[in-house]
């Protein structure tokens, strides 16, 4: 009996085993490629991919971001892996909070999307030290990104660690997971030669090491012209239509299509027009591309001290299709969504037919794809930057705006033109709210919070770290455990020096390798200086007040994000190189080789007074009138969350420079540093012609970054502890939380451009009743159209937020739009004679512009 039971158990076990084996086997996805595309389970694929970096938002935002990407027509989420966020010291790993990579990948998987894992582990990415841990630079004998044993050892270690982690979770497509591609290294081909003899062997080693990881899906290397088989070399640029991979057996992939650009403190705000992003994508697919990844699709935030640089801002908004706060940026997001729909309608002929190129003019051409089942798709482009053009294609005339591509999924009807933005626009605002004392705080009767104030001493606090004649390098000394390093010295002034008379002041002259400096003499701030995104070195020169006898010079040197790219970038230093006092009787005193006393970091940082368990380790002075313009000051307030549930930005416009935390979470560096008025900001952005980051900038003379994202999930219902460290002086009573929300939405439609739902494309092409142009308006979730601010059918001018009526205007417009749209989530209005006076101003091309308020 026992024996029978035993064999039954074995049989049961066998069946279970078989079931699991078959089950997991059947879930596995086969990913390969040919010259045309990635092949997933035997099917060629056109893929639209979106970079969303997990540590640049918080886990609470991930599902929403991924959902918004999916709704935008995205199939794949792409992320780098951030080595220095994970391997905090050799062999000591962290995967919690924003660094929970497994959780992020699971959310992508649950959304039914694919994932591209760019392991790097060097990533650039405007991320501190390009993602490589700072400790690795101090492992003796290490040189990054070349044929160097310690570097290769640690790189292989980390890559293997991540690969094994992904394997354990069955995340590779070959195991049934979402990962369809993985990347090793990053844009090394661009600098390989500069590394001399170590360059090529390193690149080849990296490729081989990656392939040996046996992940069952292809590897890619971006901007790696010599990527060896089977690794696919891919393109990163503003345009990749002219790119060809290094083998006829590899598909044409675009890993970084930059739909905007990043910002540096003290510079303008770059914007890339949606028409040009769409043009670049359409050209890429026209010319045989099959995978396009937007870098970034959601840029997010460089929380804490994660931003690279130097000088990369805390915001990494990137002018991306989803804004820093997680809200779809319109019209960019919507324009690209429609583009994606149009491209997907072409998928079959594009992937199964060879293209025929037709020249339609000197700068106009069509690429026509026909498949064996009779499918036909065409891309007709006009590369002329100035002129529109009417071209003839298969005996039909097509009007092409300058610098645009028309997509014809059936070789007849235009589904989309990259220069005609049909999607609605929105205007966002930051609604300010002064800080409110928390209900749990002792002073709940007053609304403005009481402040706790703690002022640090300028110079050495506690015991000095060391004394040395001359200067040390800032980064080699702090090892990036903090932004701050004090350099202090003293010198004597004779009683008979004329500079003591106040009429002839002495001058302090300092040179630094970077990045920023506040100079104190006898505990008083004399001035500040800093480099910029182009050149981190700087000079400081300021008159100073000295006293007879001993004068104390305390110089606070700061880094603002470590170098993140470039050949041998890890050797770029920072800190003081020369300090002199001019104007003394004997001329100039050079203090550079003095005995300098050093202190790493701030007292408040050492005591962690921004965290719950360190908060009480200093004596905060409690006041409802905190000091203003006082350097080296810590401020603390217990506050309520701002009302509503919109995303929150901390408004630091009246503050100087420093760091901020909420409930111990690092908001990051703030610095409302103004950009120079000498920079150029065009009054209008011309989308035509090649884009460069400085082409369509805004914000000349304005603070580069005023608001700092504080994720909603960091707030508690009450008793939130906001801690600020202000370096040079500001007014904390002016700090506000601002809620980000949509003020108005605008939509327009013109008689000559039918805007239709691409989802109903087959119905549309089959119907004879074409060209009923229809305006679509939609409010954000949870809001209704409450006011029609503007509506004009005729020849209105201006743009969203500043429309005005033209000479031709149907006076019934407002009443008509109000009737259809008020108190609705959204509405559609056709340009038909039932709705408008279509006979108005004969001969003129009329349009309808609407601005509505959602609340
Ligand atoms: C690329 C790099 C990215 C990012 C980008 C600019 O060269 O691969 O990581 O730095 O430039 O945003």
From TrEMBL:
Q: Where in the cell is it found?
A: Secreted, Extracellular space, Apoplast
Q: What are this entry's molecular-function GO terms?
A: beta-galactosidase activity; carbohydrate binding
Question: Would I find Acyltransferase among this entry's keywords?
Answer: no
Q: Is Glycoprotein included in the keywords of this UniProt record?
A: yes
Where the record annotates domain SUEL-type lectin, the positions are: 775-855
Enzyme class of the recorded protein, top EC level: hydrolase
Gene Ontology BP, a term: carbohydrate metabolic process
InterPro entries attached here?
Answer: BetaGal_gal-bd, Galactose-bd-like_sf, GH, GHD, Gly_Hdrlase_35_cat, Glyco_hydro_35_CS, Glycoside_Hdrlase_35, Lectin_gal-bd_dom
Q: What is its EC number?
A: 3.2.1.23
Q: Which PANTHER family match?
A: BETA-GALACTOSIDASE RELATED
For this chain, the family text in UniProt reads: Belongs to the glycosyl hydrolase 35 family.
- For this entry, the protein name equals Beta-galactosidase
Q: Which organism is it from?
A: Aquilegia coerulea
Q: Read off the lineage from the record.
A: Eukaryota, Viridiplantae, Streptophyta, Embryophyta, Tracheophyta
């Amino acid at each position: 009996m026992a024996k029978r039971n035993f064999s039954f158990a074995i049989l049961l076990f066998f069946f279970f085993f078989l079931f699991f084996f078959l089950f997991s086997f059947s879930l596995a996805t086969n990913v390969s490629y040919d010259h045309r595309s990635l092949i997933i389970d035997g099917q060629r694929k056109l893929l639209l991919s979106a970079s969303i970096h997990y540590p640049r938002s918080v886990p609470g935002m991930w599902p929403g971001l991924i959902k918004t990407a999916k709704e935008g027509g995205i199939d794949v989420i792409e992320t780098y892996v951030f080595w220095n966020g994970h391997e905090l010291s050799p062999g000591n790993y962290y995967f919690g909070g924003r660094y929970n990579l497994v959780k992020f990948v699971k959310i992508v998987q649950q959304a039914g999307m694919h994932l591209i894992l760019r392991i790097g582990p060097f990533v650039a990415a405007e991320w501190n030290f390009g993602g490589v841990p700072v400790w690795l630079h101090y492992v003796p004998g290490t040189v990054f990104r070349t044929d160097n044993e310690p570097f290769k050892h640690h790189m292989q270690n980390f890559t293997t660690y991540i690969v094994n982690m992904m394997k354990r979770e069955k995340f590779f497509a070959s195991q049934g997971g979402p990962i369809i591609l993985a990347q090793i290294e990053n844009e090394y081909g661009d600098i390989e030669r500069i590394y001399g003899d170590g360059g090529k062997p390193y690149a080849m080693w990296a490729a081989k090491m990656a392939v040996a990881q046996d992940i069952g899906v292809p590897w890619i290397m971006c901007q790696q012209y010599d990527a060896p088989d089977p690794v696919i070399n891919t393109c990163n640029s503003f345009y990749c239509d002219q790119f060809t991979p290094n083998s006829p057996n590899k598909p044409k992939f675009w890993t970084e299509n930059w739909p905007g650009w990043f910002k540096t403190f003290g510079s303008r705000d770059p914007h890339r027009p949606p028409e040009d992003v769409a043009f670049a994508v359409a050209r890429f697919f026209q010319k045989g591309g099959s995978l396009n990844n937007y870098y970034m699709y959601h840029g997010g935030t460089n929380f804490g001290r994660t931003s690279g640089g130097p000088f990369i801002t805390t915001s990494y908004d990137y002018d991306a299709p989803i804004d820093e706060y997680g809200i779809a940026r319109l019209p960019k997001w919507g324009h690209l969504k429609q583009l994606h729909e149009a491209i997907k309608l072409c998928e079959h002929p594009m992937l199964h037919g060879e293209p025929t190129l037709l020249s339609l003019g000197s700068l106009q051409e069509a690429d026509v794809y026909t498949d064996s089942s009779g499918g036909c798709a065409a891309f007709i482009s006009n590369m002329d930057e100035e002129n529109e053009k009417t071209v003839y294609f298969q005996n039909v005339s097509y009007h092409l705006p300058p610098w645009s591509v028309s997509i014809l999924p059936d070789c007849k009807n235009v589904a989309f033109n990259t220069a005609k933005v049909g999607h609605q626009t929105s205007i966002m605002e930051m609604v300010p709210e002064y800080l409110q004392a928390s209900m749990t705080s002792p002073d709940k009767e007053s609304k403005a919070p009481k402040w706790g104030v703690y002022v640090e001493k300028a110079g050495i606090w506690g015991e000095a770290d060391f004394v040395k004649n001359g200067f040390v390098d800032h980064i080699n000394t702090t090892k990036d455990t903090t932004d701050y390093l004090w350099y202090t010295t003293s010198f004597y002034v004779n009683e008979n020096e004329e500079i003591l008379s106040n009429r002839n002041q002495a001058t302090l002259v300092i040179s630094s390798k970077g990045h920023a400096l506040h100079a104190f003499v006898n505990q008083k701030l004399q001035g500040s200086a800093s480099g910029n995104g182009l050149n981190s070195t700087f000079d400081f020169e300021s008159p100073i007040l000295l006293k007879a006898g001993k004068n104390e010079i305390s110089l606070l040197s700061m880094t603002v994000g470590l170098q993140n790219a470039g050949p041998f970038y890890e050797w770029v230093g920072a800190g003081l190189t020369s300090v002199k006092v001019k104007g003394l009787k004997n001329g100039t005193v050079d203090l550079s080789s003095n005995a300098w006393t050093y202190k790493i970091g701030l007292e408040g940082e050492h005591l962690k007074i921004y965290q719950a368990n360190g908060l009480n380790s200093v004596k905060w002075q409690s006041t409802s009138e905190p000091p203003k313009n006082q350097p080296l000051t810590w401020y603390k307030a217990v506050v309520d969350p701002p009302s509503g549930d919109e995303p929150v930005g901390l408004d630091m416009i009246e503050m100087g420079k420093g760091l901020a935390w909420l409930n111990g979470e690092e908001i990051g560096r703030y610095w409302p540093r103004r950009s120079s008025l000498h920079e150029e900001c065009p009054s209008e952005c011309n989308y035509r012609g090649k884009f460069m980051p400085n082409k369509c900038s805004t914000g000349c003379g304005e603070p580069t970054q005023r608001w700092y994202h504080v994720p909603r999930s960091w707030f508690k219902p009450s008793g939130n502890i906001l801690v600020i460290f202000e370096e040079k002086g500001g007014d904390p009573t002016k700090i506000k939380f601002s809620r980000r929300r949509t003020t108005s939405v605008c939509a327009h439609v013109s008689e000559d451009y039918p805007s239709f739902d691409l989802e109903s494309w087959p119905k549309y092409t089959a119907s004879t009743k074409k060209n009923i142009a229809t305006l679509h308006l939609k409010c954000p979730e949870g809001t209704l159209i409450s006011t029609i601010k503007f509506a004009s059918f005729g020849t209105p001018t201006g743009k969203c937020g500043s429309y005005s009526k033209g000479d031709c205007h149907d006076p019934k417009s407002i009443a008509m739009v109000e009737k259809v749209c008020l108190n609705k989530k959204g509405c559609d209005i056709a340009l038909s004679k039932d709705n408008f006076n279509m006979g108005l101003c004969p001969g003129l091309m009329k349009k309808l512009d609407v601005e509505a308020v959602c609340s």
